[in-house]
Amino acid sequence: MRLQVASLFLASVVRLACAVIADEAYQIDYHHALLGTPQAHTTFFHRPSSSSGASLLYSLSEKSILGAVNPKDGSIVWRQNLTEYSAGAGLLRAVDGEDAVISALGSDVSAWGASDGKLLWTKRFNDDASVTSLELTKSHGADLQAVRDPHCVIWGSNPRCEKVGRDNLPFRVSITSTAVYYVSLQPASRKGYKISVVELDIQLGRVTNQYTLHSENELASPNPTIFVSSNAASSFIAWLDQEFKILKVNLLGSKSIHTFDVENHSGETVQDVKIHTSHSVPHFVVYYNTATKSWADVFHSNVKSGWVSKAFQLPVLDSKSASASNTANNQLYFARITRSTVDLFSSTAENILGTWKIKGNSGELEHAVLEVVARGSGFALRFAQVDDSGDWALIRNGELEWRRPESLSDAIVAAWAEVNGGEALAHELEFEGHQDALSAYIHRVKRHAKALQDNLFPWLQELPTKALSSFSASDGTELTQFGFGKLVVVATRKGRILALDSARQGAVLWNVKAAEGAGTWGANAISAHQNVATIFVKDGSTVKVNITSGDIIERSQPTEKYSSMAFISDAASPIPVPIDADGTPLNSHLRIEGDKFLVTLSKDGKLMSWNTASLEAPAWEFVPPKNQKIIHATARPTHDPVASIGKVLGDRSVLYKYLNPNIALVSAVAGSTLTLYLLDGTSGRILHTATQGGVDITQPIASVISENWFAYSFWGDVTDTSDAKGYRLVISELYESPIPNDRGLLGNAANYSNIHSSIGLPRPHVISQAYMIPEAISNMAVTETRQGITIRQLLCTLPDSNAIVGIPRFVLDPRRPVNRDPTSQEVEEGLARYTPFLGFDPQWYLNHAREVMGINRIESSPTLLESSTLIFAYGFDVFGTRLAPSQPFDLLGKGFSRIQLLLTVVALAVGVAILGPMVRRKQVNLQWKA
Ligand SMILES: *[C@@H]1O[C@H](CO)[C@@H](O)[C@H](O)[C@H]1NC(C)=O
Ligand SMILES: *[C@@H]1O[C@H](CO)[C@@H](O)[C@H](O)[C@H]1NC(C)=O
Ligand SMILES: *[C@@H]1O[C@H](CO)[C@@H](O)[C@H](O)[C@H]1NC(C)=O
Ligand SMILES: *[C@@H]1O[C@H](CO)[C@@H](O)[C@H](O)[C@H]1NC(C)=O
Description:
mainly beta, Thrombin, subunit H, 7 domains, four-stranded antiparallel sheet, 41% strand
């Protein structure tokens, strides 16, 4: 009876525990699905269907990714990588209410379903031509008009080319309901450029009118300050002189030029001018910014009678501001946006229609798109802005709705950082690991006593809230104590530094500007130590950032240029050693004790090894045979602990692993041959060579080495054997000897030298196996755990399916029996029969159903719990997760109910209390009866 009660309760507890894994998908992992920084001229709100009022945000980003974003929450509705089809600067247009957006990139023009992102049609023009302007007409459906270099206006859904103005620089097309205007720049005889306008009949495509405007005094360079309106109620060309002193306007179709003076406010020069038009009202707004001031001029026009006049000017604002416009209810609305406020105006009157205070916003605004809704007497407005960090944010009525960290799409280097004393605890645990049992125990008791002293009182204070929160799901903060709450410090190509919190779904904690200059910042390496992240830049400068607050603590000036940075681990902290392009360490005066080796690769493909005790001359050099080019060299990860030095076989004998800490794996290609060299880092001797023929070296080749094994993948076509062509993954394991229980030549030698050895360097016994895999692997990495007991996973990025898989190591065991079933001893070892084709099990996909685009680096970091490791992948998208390759054996899952456990214990106690006397009475009665 007692037993039954117990097993019943236990059963319910056990069932719960099994549900842990499925439950944590999308909880412990995070994904920033990015587009790249949106460009001003290819970003807009658009309604995909005229029946529903809801609009989406569309953008063709700097990275040529076209995507739709839901303005409510900032999530991606769909995205497409346009570089897969064409390259070049992009254009993007849409016609209101039509379910299509049309993109032009290079010589391709494509239409995409606006609501689902499906490709509707695509047209490729001559490859060496590129589309310079693209316009759509509403009256002809989503008909397309494009100007193509050289000198061709393309028409309609059945493209027809109309040759115009041969010697001119094509600039823009503009469309009205009756005509198409082709605007080009014609070099004037003496200097400057004239504007040439060709008018074509929209139906027939015939030239009906042609004129040139004398703009050569203003337009001195072909990089002009011209604006051509399109699909606007007032179709015009506006241009300014180089100093922004005068504005000239020509209404398309007439030859007359209207001249306006740009007002000179306090002698400051105008820095930028933006012109907003409307498709339904013949008004336009010219927006000026100087270094410290901004204002706008509103113009009204009438095309029929050919007049343009300045209606009014907005009061000058004593700060820079950005502008955005929107046409709604037959009104041209425009917003003046500063860091703290947004003011709404219309083109009909000077008064402010509404003002909103902006909260929770940071950064200098670069450009924005606006949407205005009239609500009774008031207005509601939202705008999506790109600020100087490159991030994209939506602000609705002054409140920040969402922020997309698009700057992360430029991430080039990342490093893990411990916070909240995690580093100190890891250090203490490390210390205990290296002591004998007794002193480790004493140390531990002391540590706990101190922790109790420090933490008991705050813990007791927090207890009531904690007890309450344990009823609900645990939050991220609780996880930090296991080392799960690490931060990732990321540096981007454009000079930003960000910190992401891996315990809070990869939330961006801060994003600071570290350097000027778009796309040129050569951040090379990051080291994070004691709450300070140091970013090493290729020009020799460094930036130090406080990891908690994101404050820049220190910047050092550029010194000597270098090409990469190596870190040599030392007792205190890793020592940075800059490496020149020719592979030589720059600070050759550096002396690091302890016989450490540094292996470098020079630009001309030579491998060199340096003893850190003297960095003046290389200890050895490795030059691959003629024609071969080294494409990749890699070593074991810095943190690569080995839990067991041997592999126990089914018959209890042991195969000893070949464990050389100084080992390098070098891949070299020549023609269609891939050669892998396994080198000893101290002596430079080749330990093992593997050669693969029929390799397509234009396809990705990835390789990784860890513990006593290495893996690589490539596209191979081995026609002389029965193997089919395709992607392959090869795994090789290194053992001391092919014979179990044998330690090879060195036997029980206590010490030996790789360099000065009479018996020569023992070579490993290598067992290899190849698998066919379904698709290319572009990068590989290995999971790292604290002590290396947990099964390792081979992490691979799959560029074709935008995924990351973690292949458990035992699946790849090269000792899997070939062409026969495993014997019972092999089954005991966990070996399954070898199958040449290795399909990727759906459970191996770390990203689940999400698409992770453009990943080119995966970093793994151990936590304080042996079972778990943190993963961070970046390159374009950012993805992170926590893995437990051998199940979370030392961790209670999120679904574990402490309350239920307590209730079980209470129920058991009650059961015992009630049943105990009953049973005793029954036994006494039985004895009396007997
Ligand atoms: C503006 O006026 C100042 C004098 O007040 C003059 O020095 C300056 O050149 C003018 N700037 C422009 C852009 O006209
Ligand atoms: C970093 O910033 C935090 C919070 O502002 C501060 O408490 C800490 O002392 C700073 N650390 C360093 C190394 O400057
Ligand atoms: C091994 O190390 C010991 C102590 O360092 C040394 O005396 C001995 O000669 C070494 N043995 C060999 C084979 O080098
Ligand atoms: C887009 O496609 C191109 C060409 O296939 C590729 O090089 C690039 O990495 C892709 N971009 C992303 C973000 O995946």
